[in-house]
């Protein structure tokens, strides 16, 4: 079958189920290749960024933060939602790195673009690689879970072992740790910080306008 003759899965109808502060749920009626119409429930997400901040000793900045959905603290990268309409994701990444890890970076590139759950969500996460780090300190205070957040520098080999041992289970963090380890000796392998991001979600942001 040629690429031009492949089925395009048209949406015959769509209905909103729930709209919340950071996500929405809709139901799509999708026409399948055989003509059957199947219901697909889609979780709309604003999108997010994460930062693999790497120091000259090849240590990566990790945070330990409570995640209520799983009921425990997880090892993760500094990260945040794209919840400011129209904001450049690199600007969001700068802010999250400063607020969660107390760091600023002089060198930025795109490490990964990830869609963690494409079977039911349009969530996409851009992971930046940040180098040339300066410690500026975290802002005082912090709200909710971030008030209890802890930070730690972890060497890349240890971070890889934590990932393979199941100590790091956050999917974005696990992928970023392995990717950072893979290109640690060749930072030019990362993409430009302004590289195209075709999967960046747009529907949830449009709802809030």
Walk me through what this model shows:
The strands form three sheets. The chain has a five-stranded mixed sheet, sandwiched between helices. It has a three-stranded antiparallel sheet with strand order 1-2-3, with no helix packed on it. Helices cover 19% and strands 38% of the residues. A hairpin with a 5-residue loop joins strand 2 and strand 3. Helix 2 crosses helix 3. It has two domains: 42 residues, no CATH class; 151 residues, Nucleoside Triphosphate Pyrophosphohydrolase (Alpha-Beta Complex). The chain has four helices and eleven strands; from the N terminus they run βββββββαβββααβα. The protein is an alpha+beta fold and 209 residues long.
């Amino acid at each position: 079958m040629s690429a031009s003759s492949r089925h395009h899965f048209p949406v015959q109808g769509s209905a909103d189920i729930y709209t919340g502060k950071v996500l929405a749920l809709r139901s799509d009626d999708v026409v399948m290749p055989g003509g059957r119409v199947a219901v697909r429930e889609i979780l709309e997400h604003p999108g997010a960024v994460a930062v693999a901040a790497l120091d000259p000793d090849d240590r990566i900045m990790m945070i330990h933060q409570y995640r209520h959905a799983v009921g425990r603290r997880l090892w993760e990268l500094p990260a945040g939602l794209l919840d400011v309409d129209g904001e450049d994701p690199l600007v969001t990444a700068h802010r999250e790195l400063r607020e969660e890890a107390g760091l600023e970076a002089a060198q930025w590139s795109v490490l990964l673009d990830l869609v963690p759950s494409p079977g039911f969500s349009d969530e996409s996460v851009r992971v930046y690689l940040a180098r040339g780090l300066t410690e500026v300190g975290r802002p005082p205070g912090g709200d909710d879970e971030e008030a209890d957040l802890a930070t730690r520098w972890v060497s890349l080999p240890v971070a890889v072992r934590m990932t393979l041992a199941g100590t790091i289970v956050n999917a974005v963090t696990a992928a970023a740790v392995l990717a950072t380890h893979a290109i640690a000796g060749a930072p030019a392998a990362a993409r430009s910080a302004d590289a195209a991001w075709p999967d960046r979600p747009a529907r949830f942001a449009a709802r809030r306008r």
